[in-house]
Design brief:
single chain, alpha+beta, Pnp Oxidase, Chain A, two-stranded antiparallel ribbon, globular
């Protein structure tokens, strides 16, 4: 017989009664691992910007849509250059972060003035995109060129942020990370996920489960 499960005491929290920094720590330690969108943009003057966002995910495949959430910048409580640039130009590229680009991605997270070039600081190389003006990160094996669909501002105060929704209009994938025409070889890609604090994770330990068959009679 299985041992009885222990009933743990619960810590009850009203997030409105905590400083936003504490809410952030609880949420980013609970919602893990998170994918990382490494977003490259240009401002209206053509200046490059590169920054990572772990509040990032997909929306749907038709039309192919993704989102990421730039928060209000901690250093000065202003909107981040990435968001400002997308508002000005309506374009951006999401580069996928791998074990090989982890340190460069972390370097590009620096908070800096708009004229600062994170590509140069992080030691990565910009390459031309096909359908948008912002450059791609050459060292990343997957690039998703995006056109802005919508920006939802949730809050512009400290601890606030926005949701940027983009339509993927072109994709670049290195042949080595492909399995056939439409699957990704994760062992070659070696993506990295975000944890809490300074933590990141690899996907060297995976579990695969077969989903239950649909009871609705349609395709799964």
């Amino acid at each position: 017989m299985d041992a009885p499960t222990k009933d743990w005491d619960l810590v009850e929290i009203d997030p409105t009664r905590l400083p936003h920094q504490s809410v952030y720590k609880i949420l980013t330690g609970s919602v893990v691992p998170r994918p990382i969108g490494w977003v490259s943009t240009l401002d209206a003057r053509g200046r490059r910007n590169l920054a990572p966002f772990s509040f990032f995910n997909l929306v749907c495949p038709d039309p192919p849509t993704l989102l990421f959430c730039p928060s209000v910048r901690g250093a000065d409580n202003q909107t981040k250059d990435t968001l400002n640039n997308i508002r000005e130009t309506g374009e951006f590229v999401v580069n996928i972060v791998t074990e090989d680009t982890l340190e460069a991605m972390n370097a590009s997270a620096i908070e800096a003035p708009a004229e600062f070039d994170e590509f140069t600081f992080a030691g990565v190389h910009p390459v031309d995109s096909v359908t948008v003006k912002p450059p791609r990160v050459k060292e990343s094996p997957i690039h998703l060129e995006c056109r802005l669909r919508q920006i939802l501002e949730i809050s512009n105060k400290a601890g606030g942020g926005s949701i940027v929704i983009g339509t993927i209009i072109h994709m670049h994938l290195e042949e080595r990370v492909m399995l056939g025409s439409d699957k990704i070889n994760l062992d070659e890609l070696k993506p990295v996920g975000r944890l809490m604090g300074n933590g990141y994770c690899r996907i060297s330990d995976r579990v695969e489960l077969t989903r239950p068959k649909s009871l609705l009679g349609g395709k799964t």
